[in-house]
């Protein structure tokens, strides 16, 4: 049975991925996560609660920067590296920590992969690497113009992967995710924040005039892309966009959330935030060709799925 080490598996995307992988019955999963307190740890415990009894699941409560913690995972053949300090704005407040976890952590993990002769390494990169490149939709070969420490840490992670794939024959696939949303979404991200505020009758903070736009991708579509990349063998180093190829303005997103909630938002306007880009928009031909990637979830379907999770999660309030 193939053994996959998922870093950051208690987080939003990681727990959705592990759920899908365990359901196939084809994989043994070891998850390493340090239950970082960037957002409530209780949400991460909730994310993994159903896995803990699964015979094919092992949890290491540990840090990717610590080789001793990583060495608790033996006989791994593939790494899906999702652990990171996520979020653009907080990275501006604390760049040192972001660079330490996201760059140094990736380096330690690559050393672990080299020492253990692990041949397949998938890396969670981000649309933020394109930064202020205004030439959309973005293709993988476009210039990278990051404007936050978080974004630059993802560029560095991709580059470290190139080094290790070249020197040690580790296949490294950087998957650039585009604003992922869905069940389990991080509470710092707009969709989760907006649902919470609208449900409570609180105002929602809107940065800018509502014309900024994002290529929102439903988490199950992202997960299907990751699963396909487990078997990617065409090249030893690759960068692939996993977006949706559809952008939604902030104003339209709020309207769509109001429709799902059946309630109007109270909008509180603020200026644009440093580090935020005005738009994200993925060209996904490469993912379609290499991974048969086909993001098919509409915004309405995805928001409804999030809403269902949201009600269940907050009803059982952790
Ligand atoms: N959610 C998105 O829209 C999005 C977009 C682009 C890229 N990404 C990337 O995808 C990955 C997953 O994102 P997410 O939204 O699920 O975030 P998340 O914060 O929910 O998950 C990350 C997990 O990593 C863990 N972690 C942090 N530091 C660690 C360390 N030193 N050692 C071990 N574990 C550690 C955290 O506890 C958390 O559970 C991240 O690398 C993120 O940068 C996410």
Describe this structure in words.
By secondary structure, this protein is α/β, with parallel strands linked by helices. The chain has a single domain (2-315), classed as Rossmann fold (3-Layer(aba) Sandwich). 41% of the residues lie in helices and 19% in strands. It has helices at residues 12-24, 41-48, 67-70, 88-93, 95-115, 149-168, 190-200, 219-229, 250-261, 285-291, 299-315; strands at residues 2-7, 27-33, 57-61, 78-81, 120-126, 171-177, 180-181, 203-207, 213-214, 217-218, 237-242, 248-249, 266-270. The strands form four sheets. It has a seven-stranded parallel sheet, sandwiched between helices. Strands 7-10 form a two-stranded parallel ribbon. Strands 8-13 form a two-stranded parallel sheet. Helix 1 links the parallel strand 1 and strand 2. Helix 7 (190-200) packs across helix 9 (250-261). The longest helix is centred in the first third of the chain and has 21 residues, at 95-115. It is globular and about 55 Å long. 43% of the residues are buried. The structure holds nicotinamide-adenine-dinucleotide (NAD). Nicotinamide-adenine-dinucleotide is lined by residues 7-8, 10-14, 32-36, 38, 44, 63-65, 82-86, 101, 105, 124, 126, 177, 179-180, 186.
* CATH H-tier superfamily: NAD(P)-binding Rossmann-like Domain
**What does the overall shape look like?**
globular
- What percentage of the residues does DSSP assign to strands (E)? 15-25%
Read across the widest sheet, the strand sequence of neighbours is 3-2-1-4-5-6-11
The rounded Rg comes to: 19 Å
CATH topology call = Rossmann fold
Distance between the termini: 34 Å
Q: Sheet with the most strands?
A: 7 strands, parallel
Can you write the helix and strand succession as a string? EHEHEHEHHEHEEHEEEHEEHEHH
Q: Based on the structure given, which CATH architecture is correct? A: 3-Layer(aba) Sandwich
Helix content: 40-55%
Query: What would you call the structural class?
Result: alpha/beta
> In total, how many beta strands?
13
On the 0-100 scale, what is the average pLDDT? 97
Q: Which stretches of 5+ consecutive residues score pLDDT under 50?
A: none
- Number of DSSP helical runs: 11
